[in-house]
């Protein structure tokens, strides 16, 4: 079953503020680190123009990571107390909190802008 992200529910969660703060930091740091690593790996193949490739690929990969809502799964996985490796596997391979791309969503997006 796919869980959808509800921002209002996030405000009502009962976890201590410290756990929420650490979960937000983990979600931000791991998301940015993944994007940077993708850029660095491609940059290693082109050492003459390393920084162009590293920054370019990192900037291209970050929106895709954000659109897949990896940061949301990192946040919720951390709050649930998952160990690090399980948390990473959950964030990048789970279908929980994936965006819903049903036909009515496109209609709503197109006409409500």
UniProtKB/TrEMBL annotation:
It comes from the Bacteria. This is PrgI family protein. Keywords: Membrane, Transmembrane, Transmembrane helix. It comes from Geoanaerobacter pelophilus. The chain crosses the membrane at residues 21-44, 50-67.
